[in-house]
Structure formats: structure tokens, C-alpha cells
Design brief:
The complex is a heterodimer. By secondary structure, chain A is of the alpha+beta class. Chain A is built from 15 helices and 10 strands. Chain B starts with 32 loop residues before the first helix and ends in a 9-residue tail after the last helix. The chains are: A alpha+beta, B mainly alpha.
Chain lengths: 488, 106
């Protein structure tokens, strides 16, 4: 009884200890334990005896190193084997390989593929590249660096272009200053100062446009000079100009008072420029009906064309000195336009025709091209000085130029014709405008009558309006009768 | 010195003050570039801010620079500065929200 009791207790204890032991050791080691245990625990065996036999020869290197010391403690046989195993593991790989082959393929999955300590896995290691935004390197921000570089290039170009334009403008002014100051009492005015004192410098309107106002001379009211340079400060414009070369221009507009100029319209310039002017300018399109004629007839180079109101005007303007000027500097002349009816380019109005004739001013307009086709240097500005001389000469000449009687009559007829045409075209519109005005008045009156609260007053106003209408009708009838009588 | 130099064409009494040409009479002569670029810059910077597109913001910066380069001296500097600041803020906000580098469209 006592013996059975002891057995039971010991078996119970073993039963408790067994899972703990099992937890520490690998299956193979568990086999060893199982072998030593009673067959009561045979149910815990998951492997057959063959495997058990094999495992006894040598433990796989997979066996954790920590389990080995415990094994050594518990099983002497195993200890010996372990030591062998350990030595075998450390000394030679071939011994290990032999050992591996003995292992059951079922038990150890993928075990056969293992070769030595540097074993490769079934799935190859894929090394992913770190995405660009997680890399902390400047190289990944190359687009931003490009953008900033572009901006810096733009700023550099702005500074360089601005300076170049400024230098060109001042070079022009320095070369022309003497001539202007000897001809005009006021050189340089921005219109803001209280007294009319020469500022003696250019007005900078833009980074590429400079103005100069000169006044105080016989034969003219004033002269506005505009230096229209290329937009060297804008990189986009610089790139566009590489495709299509353009020139810097000097535009001069001389305004004359009424007695400074006789009535004529005339233009000379490059073929392209004169064609464009004739199409766009109000006065040239109205007064100069003929197409631009070649300047060769008057001794000018073939590249220039003339648009004129009448032949006499051309003969008068193109005297020998003018021809000399123009021929010598033909490459710099874009257009020259003299007009007593200058009103600017044709204005496109939405309602069809403007109701009033545009205001005209007697003007001389000159457009000169700066030589160099964009690649100008400040020295080139000196070559424009003779052209300014020509301008001064023209002012004096125009004052003296008078048409003969025939010419004057022709010119007056032209102007009357233009005015009549204009009035005819706008007649319908003017009538409409007058009609609408009358209707507006009537409507306003009617509203007043309606709004009148006092019925008495309302009646009286209505009667007054009726009387007025009747009077108008009577008047019209009278007129019609008179016309009929006259016709008879 | 009472002798009047006939060759001197200058006349003090004929001086006229400079009157800047009004732009109402000839609006076609005005260069519209700075105004267009200003508007484009504002549109792009709003796009960049709202839609969080980095390239929009960068184009807005370029537009405001171009507008500044083409502007007339009479134009208000406040307008220029405001469009410039708006575009810079668009760029900064796009990068704060999303520090990834800009990817090229190709």
C-alpha cells in the first residue's frame, strides 16, 4: 500500500515536472527524457523510434546553446555526445554535413539547405532602396535646386539688364545734351515740380523706357523723346529675342502750334513701317489714299517708301538736305510722319463709330532704330546725333513750308470731305441718340405726372403736356406745308 | 548784350510743362504684361496653397518675379510685394506640409 502510494506521488511529481523539462529542451532532447521516463508518458512522444535513435547520435546545431548545459547536467550519455557534437561542430564542417544528412527530412524543414554558419534562407533577402524623401541627402532635392538656380539666374539677368539699359540711356543723353540745350530752353521736365526748371536728366518710366521733355523753342510747342529699349531686365524677353531679333528704338514726337505748320499729311519710312502706319494711323488712312510709293523717285534708297497726301507735299518736304540726311542714315530710320491731323492710331469703338471727331494735333513723329540690333553698346548712341540734327532741321523747315494756292485748296477740300464723311456715317447714330434723348424726357415727364398725388395737379399737368404735343404737331405740319410750297 | 542772337532758337516764354500722356486715350499702347503676370502669379499661388502642388507654387514665384521686372515705375510697390509674399508663402506652406522633394513630371 505504502509502496503504491509512493509510486503514485512520485509519478505525480514527475508529471508536474515533465512539462517544465519539456519546455526547456527541444523535441529531440525530450526524446531522451522520454526514453528515460516510464511508458506512461509515451503519449507525449510525437516522433517514432527511428528519429529518436538518430537524434541520440548528435544534436543539431539548431539546439539552443542554453539547453546544452542542462542536458549535460542531466544525462551523462548526452553530455558526452554533446561534447562530441560540440567539437564536431567547431572543428570541421564536413563532420557536420554528415550529421545533417542523417537527419530526417520530415523533422527538419529546410534543414538540408543549410550550409555552415552563414546559412541562406529559403527566401532571398531583398534589400529595398530607401525612398528619396526619407533619405536625408541634398541630391534628392535636385528639382528645388534647379528652381532656385533659375531664380538666381533671373535676378542676375535683371540686374545686368537694368544696368545696361541705364548706361545706354545716359550715353544717349550725354551725346545729345549739348544739342538739346542749345535748342531748347527747358531740357528735362517731369511735370511735378512747381517751377519750370530744367531737370537736366531723363525720366525713368520703366526699366527699359526713358522719357525726355524739351520745350521753349521757336517753331514748336515741345518735343517728347522716348528711349524705348529692349527689355533686357526680363529673362523671358531675352530668350524670346534670341528667336526674333528686335532693335532698340528712339521715338521723338514734336508738337506744333497752329501757325507752325501748314495743312498736309506725309510719311516716309521702311516699306513695312509705312504700310503698317497707313493701315493703323487715323490720318494717314483718311488723307493718303494711295499705297506707299518707292522712295527711289526722290533719290532715296529703294528700301524706303513714301505715303503722301499729294505730290506737292512730297516735293516740298523732300528737299536736297532732307534727302541727304535720309540717304545717309537710311538704316537707322524706321519712320518719319508729318501731319496736321494727327490723332493717334485708329480707335476701335464698340458702338461702331465715335460720335465726335477725334482731337487732332499738329505733330512731327520720328522713329529711329538704334544700330546694333539689340547688341548695342553705349558708343553706338553717338551715331544717332545726326538724326537729331535732322529733327531740328525738320522743325524749322515745316514752319517755312507753305503749300501753293492749288495745294492749299486741295488740302482744304480733303479735310472738308473727311469731315462730311464722318458726319454722314454718324448721322444715323446721332439721330438715334437725339431720339432716345427725347423719349427719355417724355418718360420722365410722364413719371412726374403719375407720381403726382394731388389729382387736381395731375389733371393740370396732363393737360399742359397734351397742349405741348399738339403744338409740336402743328409746327411739323406747317413745316411740311412750307416745303411743299417751296418745291412747287 | 541787347543784341538778340537771332540764331538762338530758344524762347523762354514758349515753355510748356510736361504732361504725361493719359492712358485713357490709347490703352493699346500700354504693356499688359505686368498685370497678366500678377494675376497669373496669384492664381498659381492659390492653386499651390489649396491643392498642395509644389510646382504651382514655384511657377507663382517666377510669375511674380516677371511681373516685377516688367512693372512701370508708377505702379504701386505694395501690389508687387503682396503678390511676391503670397507666392513665397505658397512655396513655404507646400514644403512644410509635405517635405518630400518635388518629383519631375517625366
Amino acid at each position: 500500500m505504502r509502496r503504491a502510494h509512493l509510486l503514485l506521488i512520485s509519478s505525480l511529481l514527475l508529471l508536474l515536472a515533465f512539462p517544465l523539462a519539456r519546455g526547456r529542451y527541444s523535441d529531440d532532447d525530450g526524446e531522451d527524457i522520454v526514453d528515460f521516463d516510464d511508458n506512461d508518458f509515451a503519449e507525449f512522444e510525437d516522433m517514432n523510434d527511428e528519429q529518436a535513435a538518430e537524434t541520440e547520435t548528435a544534436p543539431p546545431p539548431r539546439a539552443s546553446q542554453t539547453s546544452k548545459p542542462e542536458e549535460d547536467e542531466d544525462e551523462d550519455e548526452a553530455t558526452v555526445e554533446l561534447e562530441d557534437g560540440q567539437d564536431g561542430f567547431e572543428d570541421s564542417e564536413t563532420q557536420d554535413q554528415d550529421m545533417y544528412r542523417k537527419y530526417d527530412q520530415e523533422e527538419f524543414e529546410g534543414f538540408g539547405d543549410m550550409e555552415g554558419p552563414g546559412h541562406s534562407m529559403k527566401d532571398p533577402l531583398i534589400i529595398h532602396t530607401v525612398p528619396a524623401h526619407l533619405q536625408n541627402s541634398w541630391e534628392s532635392y535636385y528639382m528645388e535646386i534647379l528652381m532656385v538656380t533659375g531664380l538666381l539666374a533671373y535676378i542676375m539677368n535683371y540686374i545686368i539688364g537694368k544696368n545696361k539699359n541705364s548706361r545706354l540711356a545716359h550715353a544717349w543723353f550725354n551725346s545729345h545734351r549739348e544739342l538739346l540745350e542749345s535748342n531748347f530752353a527747358l531740357v528735362g521736365d517731369d511735370g511735378t515740380s512747381k517751377e519750370a526748371v530744367s531737370t537736366g536728366k531723363l525720366n525713368q518710366e520703366n526699366e527699359h523706357i526713358y522719357n525726355l521733355w524739351c520745350s521753349g523753342r521757336v517753331c514748336c510747342e515741345g518735343m517728347l523723346i522716348q528711349l524705348k529699349f529692349l527689355k533686357r531686365q526680363d529673362l523671358l524677353n531675352v530668350l524670346a529675342r534670341m528667336m526674333r531679333p528686335v532693335c532698340d528704338q528712339v521715338q521723338i514726337k514734336v508738337t506744333l502750334s497752329d501757325d507752325d505748320m501748314d495743312t498736309f499729311v506725309f510719311a516716309v519710312g521702311t516699306k513695312k513701317a509705312t504700310a503698317k502706319l497707313q493701315k493703323e494711323m487715323q490720318d494717314l488712312s483718311e488723307f493718303c489714299g494711295d499705297k506707299p510709293k518707292s522712295g527711289a523717285k526722290y533719290g532715296l534708297p529703294d528700301s524706303l517708301a513714301i505715303v503722301s497726301e499729294m505730290g506737292e507735299v512730297t516735293d516740298g518736304v523732300m528737299d536736297s538736305k532732307m534727302v541727304h540726311y535720309i540717304t545717309n542714315h537710311a538704316d537707322k530710320i524706321e519712320s518719319i510722319h508729318f501731319s496736321d491731323q494727327f490723332s493717334g492710331p485708329k480707335v476701335m469703338q464698340e458702338e461702331g463709330q465715335p460720335l465726335k471727331l477725334p482731337e487732332t494735333k499738329k505733330s512731327l513723329l520720328f522713329t529711329f532704330n538704334v544700330p546694333g540690333m539689340g547688341n548695342t553698346s553705349p558708343k553706338d548712341m553717338d551715331s544717332l546725333l545726326p538724326l537729331m540734327n535732322m529733327v531740328i532741321y525738320s522743325i524749322d523747315k515745316v514752319k517755312k513750308l507753305r503749300l501753293n494756292r492749288e495745294g492749299k485748296q486741295k488740302a482744304d477740300r480733303n479735310r472738308a470731305r473727311v469731315e462730311e464723311n464722318f458726319l454722314k456715317q454718324t448721322h444715323a447714330q446721332r439721330q438715334e441718340a437725339a431720339q432716345t434723348r427725347r423719349e427719355e424726357k417724355k418718360r420722365a415727364e410722364k413719371e412726374r405726372i403719375m407720381n403726382e398725388e394731388d389729382p387736381e395737379r395731375q389733371r393740370r399737368l396732363e393737360e399742359a403736356a397734351q397742349r405741348r404735343d399738339q403744338k409740336k404737331i402743328e409746327k411739323k405740319q406747317m413745316k411740311m406745308k412750307q416745303i411743299k410750297v417751296k418745291a412747287m | 548784350m541787347s543784341f538778340n542772337n537771332m540764331a538762338d532758337p530758344r524762347r523762354q516764354n514758349k515753355i510748356l510743362r510736361y504732361k504725361p500722356p493719359s492712358t485713357d486715350t490709347n490703352p493699346t499702347l500700354e504693356d499688359p504684361t505686368p498685370d497678366y503676370m500678377n494675376l497669373l502669379g496669384m492664381i498659381f499661388s492659390m492653386c499651390g496653397l489649396m491643392l498642395k502642388l509644389k510646382w504651382c507654387a514655384w511657377i507663382a514665384v517666377y510669375c511674380s518675379f516677371i511681373s516685377f521686372a516688367n512693372s512701370r515705375s508708377s505702379e504701386d510697390t505694395k501690389q508687387m510685394m503682396s503678390s511676391f509674399m503670397l507666392s513665397i508663402s505658397a512655396v513655404v506652406m507646400s514644403y512644410l506640409q509635405n517635405p518630400q522633394p518635388m518629383s519631375p513630371p517625366w
